[in-house]
Amino acid sequence: MPQIQLTPAERREHRANAHHLDPVVLVGGDGLTPAVQKEIDAALNAHGLIKVRVFGDDRAARELMYQQLTADLNAAPIQHIGKLLVLWRPQPVKERVLDEDRMPGPRDVKVLKFSKRGGQRPEIKQLRVLGNQRLTPGGQIKRAKKPKQKSVKKRQAD
């Protein structure tokens, strides 16, 4: 597969984003094994922009490894500085599976609490309401009530 070609401005932007990253994959004395390549591929799918640390002293071998990774994994070479290699590949779009049984998650609600005195501004509170909670008219958060259980005799009468 051909490697991705980036403009110098794009490469500079990715280099700046990678500055604070820690190495995700460490390449040991065995070099670039298929297992290491698979791990780098998985990291690129998960993160997009990664750092790889190579524990080898041979600069030519590291440069060859860098070129091989970019060619085999269809990644863009961002930076090779010392024993660190920075690679980038666009992340694949993840499919979302909709589950009908799933309840809504937490939601943020603004609550206005008006003063009893007339000329003052209302107090604005930002509250997070979870799935098993409800908001009362007074601005309080309460747990949602379960439906009241009927006795066996009353259920049979219905």
Automatic annotation (TrEMBL):
Record flagged with keyword RNA-binding: yes
Any one GO MF annotation of this record: RNA binding
Organism superkingdom: Bacteria
Keywords on record: RNA-binding
SMART domains associated with the record: CRS1_YhbY
A Pfam family it matches: CRS1_YhbY
Alphabetical list of InterPro entries matching this protein: RNA-binding_CRM, RNA-binding_domain, YhbY-like_sf
Bias kind Basic residues: ranges: 142-158
Residues covered by region (Disordered): 115-158
Domain CRM: 4-100
UniProt protein name: Putative YhbY family RNA-binding protein
Organism: Acidovorax soli
